[in-house]
Amino acid sequence: MESTLRTVDTFPPFGLPSANVGEEDYGFASGTAVLRTDGIGPCLGIVIYSPERKYGSLAHISGFRKVPKVVRPENIVETMLSGMDNHTALVAYLAGESWTDDDVSRTVAKQLEKNGVMVMDTDLGIVPKGRSMLLYCDSGKVEVYRYQ
Fold first, then answer.
1. Which is it for the CA torsion 98, 123, 83, 27, positive or negative?
2. Going by C-beta distance under 8 Å and a sequence separation of 6 or more, which residues neighbour residue 1?
3. Domain ranges of the chain
4. How many CA atoms lie within 13 A of 148 on its CB side?
C-alpha cells in the first residue's frame, strides 16, 4: 500500500464539513466523514486508519504529563485502537513536533509497532506556525497543512 499523505504549505480550506478534534482529544469516523485537528505546533497529530473498512481515528496530543492518561503518548495508541473493532491491516500517519525535542512521536511509533500498525508516512519537525491534519475516511487520504 502506498502512502496517502499529502503536505500543503498553506492554511487549510475554510468551510470544509468536518468533525473537529481538539487538543488532548481523539475522535473516530467512517464513510464520507472528515476528521480534522488544527493548531499542531509542538504537539503530535496521529491518524490510525483501516483501508478495508474506511474507518479511522485522529488524535491531537501534547505529551504533557498533566493530561488524562488515555491521551498520554504511551497510552494513546491503545486508546485509539479500543474504538476500532478490527485491528488488522491498519496504517498510521504522524505530523507535528514543530518546536520541541520531546520526541513524543518516537514513543507513539513504538506503540504502533507493538500493536502491528504500520507507520506509512510522517511530517515531523520545524514549520513556522504549526499544522492542521485532516483524514478523509472514504479514501484514506491524509492532508497536512503547514501554516506559512
1. positive
2. 51, 91, 120
3. 5-146
4. 7
Q: What is the CA radius of gyration of the chain?
A: 14
CB 135 within 8 A of CB 35: yes
> Is the dihedral angle over the CA atoms 29, 79, 125, 96 positive or is it negative?
positive
Q: What is the value of pTM for the model shown?
A: 0.93
Count other Cβ atoms within 10 Å, centred on residue 65.
7
| Per-10-residue mean pLDDT, the chain, length 148 | 86 84 95 94 94 94 85 94 84 88 87 95 87 95 92
Cell of 79: 486508546
- Say if residues 51 and 6 touch (Cβ distance below 8 Å): no
What is the spatial distance between Cα 6 and Cα 106, in angstroms, rounded to a whole number? 21
Query: Which three three-digit cell numbers place residue 113?
Result: 509497532
Topology of the domain comprising 5-146:
60s Ribosomal Protein L30; Chain: A; (3.30.1330)
Cell numbers 491521551 label which residue? 71
Cα separation, 6 vs 134, whole angstroms: 10
